Amino acid sequence: MPVWIVSLKRPDFSLLRWFSVTSLLSVIVFSVGVALVMTRFLEHHMLDRDAAVSREFVQSIVNTQRVAEYFERGEAGGASAFAEFFSHIAAIPDVLRANVYTPDRRALWSSDAAIIGRVFERNDELEEALTGEVVVNRGSIADELKDKPEHMLLGAERVDYVENYLPVYDSAGQRLIGVVELYKVPRALFRTIHEGTRMVWASAIVGGLFLYLSLLWLVVRANRVLREQRSRLVETEALALVGEMSAAVAHSIRNPLASIRSSAELQIEIGEARREDAQEVVRNVDRIDRLVRTILSYASDALDGGAAATTDLRKAVIEVVEHFEAQFQARGTQLTVGLADDLPAVRADAVLVMQVLNSILANALEATGVGDNVRIEARATPRAATLEVIDSGMGVAPSDIDKVFKPFYTTKARGLGMGLALVRRTVSRLGGSVQMTSEPGRGTRVTVMLPAAKSNESNRTKDVALGAVTRPDGHSASSAPTAH
Predict the structure, then answer these.
(1) Terminus of the chain with fewer CB atoms < 10 Å: N or C?
(2) What stretch of H or E contains 436?
(3) Alpha-carbon Rg of the chain, whole angstroms?
(4) CATH of domain 304-464
(5) CB under 8 Å to 125, separation ≥6 — which residues?
(6) Residues of the chain with CATH 3.30.450.20
(7) What is the distance between the alpha carbons of residues 54 and 34, in angstroms, rounded to a whole number?
């Protein structure tokens, strides 16, 4: 029968992706909402203000020409005063049509003679105006054509308009005597409203974009910091694991190593074994012991005291290269060394410097083969010494460069993944820096900068050949340093 496996692993939460999406949607909704509110406010405020000015103008004409009695009698007749009043009303700029109503909803006067004297029962805006409120209604004449009886004689052409119902009071301002209705097409006002609307939307878009980019920039930086902290946390956990492993095996390994070394030294003394074989045993025992101390030091704070010492970088490089002599010779890889004449001493313990160079050379040796080249260069820089190891080996993929300095990351079948991790930790705690550049198939360059014990201005370089340097024909060169 089939077996179903359900994974309970939760997917990683991407802060940057979720924030970029949700913040973008939030900013869009907020910007659109603010723009809609502002444009609606702008339009209503400007239309209401225009209506209030028109009402004050109409009321001033009523008071000046004293036509209140004609409203009260409800008879315009042929009175010249009322005709003059209405001519002033009809002459208001942008007025398309004007009606004058009495409190009983009868058209007392109109620019359309056909509706004079008619009573309109169904008109909500007129009803509201008869309560003393200024009513403003914006619309299109073609849409409203059949909605109200007083619109029946308007043309069918669509025209945007503003309909104002303006209450009129007696000269004392106490009693409502009628309503003046104005159909206006205020093109200048509409243009101002449209310009204000465009400005509001442009401001909302620019402001929203600025807000989104600012928040996104802040979260990108926060996300980068969180990733770095997460990386350091993972490394700290790895260190704790290394410490536990080291503490568990160091004592068990060192005791047998001490016995093996003592036995090899005894064999050298009594001559029961070839001196070269016994010395090789001692060298390998010391190498294993250094490896154990390396793992222990990686998980402890012992490195911090290494910066108080001073090391001759030239001697440290030569000693490490001599240690790798047989290995480079056996592999058929050519090694050259270029050391500056003014190479300064560095603020670091010699063991730590040699440990750093050992790890880098070991990786270069693994990455190269017959006919490849490895070059070590050391030179003085302001207040520091720069050590570079350049090889022509297989190189490292760009996506893996950031990984090679992490604990337990390795591409070797038998690798522990601690060499370059130790290099970075050691150099960092000594106050220096380490960088790697590489191109697959074309080699790798590792650059280490260590603080100098003293400043040197000269930067001349001298090439030396050591016993570990092999010529392309595979024969060993002279073991004495030689200037090229």
Answers:
(1) N
(2) strand 433-439
(3) 47
(4) 3.30.565.10
(5) 135, 137, 163, 165
(6) 15-185
(7) 30
Kindly state the tokens that stand for 242: 């290394």
Residue located via tokens 């105006």? 129
Are 386 and 447 in contact by the 8 Å Cβ rule? The answer is yes
In this predicted model, what pLDDT tens digit does every residue of 184-198 receive, in sequence order? 888 888 889 899 999
Q: What are residue 343's phi and psi, to 5 degrees?
A: -60, 125
Tell me which CATH homologous superfamily contains domain 15-185: PAS domain (3.30.450.20)
Question: Helix, strand, coil shares of the chain as percentages rounded to 5?
Answer: 50, 20, 30
pLDDT of the residue at 483? 31
Residue 231: its H or E element = helix 187-270
Distance (Å) of CA 155 to CA 252, 264, 330: 107, 119, 104
What is the pairing mode between strands 311-312 and 345-346? antiparallel
What tokens were used for 50?
């225009």
CA distance 163 to 141: 10
Q: What type of residue is 223? A: N
Q: Which of 144, 128, 114 is nearest to 181 (CA)?
A: 128
Question: If we measure between CA atoms, which residue out of 463, 465, 476, 466 comes closest to residue 329?
Answer: 476
Q: How many CB atoms lie within 10 A of CB 448?
A: 26
**pLDDT value of residue 224:** 85
Pairing type for strands 334-340 and 373-381 reads parallel
Whose tokens are 């360059």? That residue is 445
CA 76 – CA 175 distance, rounded (Å): 19
Q: Residues 6 or more apart from 5 whose CB is under 8 A from it?
A: none
pLDDT at 154: 46
Token pair 């409190």: residue? 103
pTM, entire model: 0.49
Contact assessment for residue 197 and residue 42, using Cβ atoms and an 8 Å cutoff: yes
Q: Which part of the chain is CATH 3.30.565.10?
A: 304-464
pLDDT single digits (tens) 286-298:
777 776 766 566 5
Ranges in the chain, pLDDT < 70: 1-13, 74-81, 141-159, 235, 238-251, 272-273, 291, 293-308, 407-418, 454-484
CA atoms of 222 and 216, how far apart (whole Å): 10
* Phi, psi for 158 (deg, rounded to 5): -75, 125
Answer yes or no: are the C-beta atoms of 466 and 317 closer than 8 Å.
Answer: no
